[in-house]
Amino acid sequence: MPHATQQTDVATAELDTALRGGPFHVALRAAIAARGLPLQRVQHHLSRYGVRVGVTSLSYWQQGARRPQRPESLRAVRALEEILRLPDESLIRLLAENGGDREHPAAGRPASRSYRSFVEASGVLRRLLADLDAPPDGGLQTLGHHERVRIGARRELAGRESQHIVRALRDGVDRFVAVHHGDPGCVPERMTVQALENCRTGRVRRHHDTGVLVAELLFDTRLRAGDTYLFRYGVEDGTAGVSREYVRGFDSAGGQYALQVRFDAGAPPMRCHRFTQHSAAAPRSDRQELPVSERHRSVHLVEPRVRSGIVGIGWDWE
Questions:
Q1: What domain of life is recorded for the organism (predicted)?
Q2: Where are the domains of the chain?
């Protein structure tokens, strides 16, 4: 069967090329062709993974007419990597990279944390929060969150400060659990938490491999349902290498969020931009260049009312 073997070799070569350079729909189409699976069979395999996706959606995905973005669709992409015997995160990576955030890619580094790192950190975070007996919503509604991030002379994430305005959703709430996710290579054991206003530091938990730190901030009083409270805290980091972005995720809609990033006088960035994502695995969108203040060496963004998803600021060095 020399002709069939030749066709297989060509399909494999096309797949390898598509997985390296994308875009997503071309890689998906090449992977399905290389395995010789009709879309009905692909759908059947997905159902065995507990994921329901229509043949029409699969067809749109491999044509580039639509992109998987909803959580269920992203689960399907993860399952497709196994069904089609592809390297882990090969399709997810292409989804993230083809999201319009590649105008100024820096050589030798990914544009952002991998989807797997977010998944691992999410699992660790759930365990750490459970260890602190912290409910998912904390019993608080965020009315306003102003965050100030400092980038140091070594271009590292030196630290950040957060001011929260919250409203109690029920009686008896007396604490807030803060979460800090350091840059790759950080050392959570060397980070410190500072209670700056209207709170004091309680228990702190760290996870070395994912760079996650969680800390209780204890209020001076027990709130009643409807009460508002303002508090401020900081995290000193400075334990990782060169930082290139800062992101903040939101599980649900909420109040105002403002993020300011200030750079050291001796290490200004070349350019800055803001971006959003529906989820950690979704492509980035709403990219907008941000002018850097020459006098104050800072950039900022303001979300008048946050939505579920991710918002962040990225920057490029020389």
A1: Bacteria
A2: 2-97, 115-316
Instruction: Give the residue with greater pLDDT, 297 vs 121.
Output: 297
Label the pairing between strands 256-263 and 140-151. parallel
Per-residue DSSP letter, 102: -
Which runs of E-coded beta strand occur in the chain? 140-151, 157-168, 173-181, 192-197, 200-207, 212-223, 228-236, 245-250, 256-263, 271-277, 284-290, 298-303, 309-316
Chain-centre distance for alpha carbon 99: 14
Cut 0.90: pTM above it: no
- Tokens 């509604």 label which residue? 141
Tell me the two tokens of residue 159.
């630290």
Are 98 and 105 contacting, i.e. CB atoms less than 8 angstroms apart?
no
Helix, strand, or coil here: 172? coil
Q: What is the average pLDDT score of the chain? A: 84
**Considering just the CA atoms, what is the radius of gyration of the chain in Å?**
22
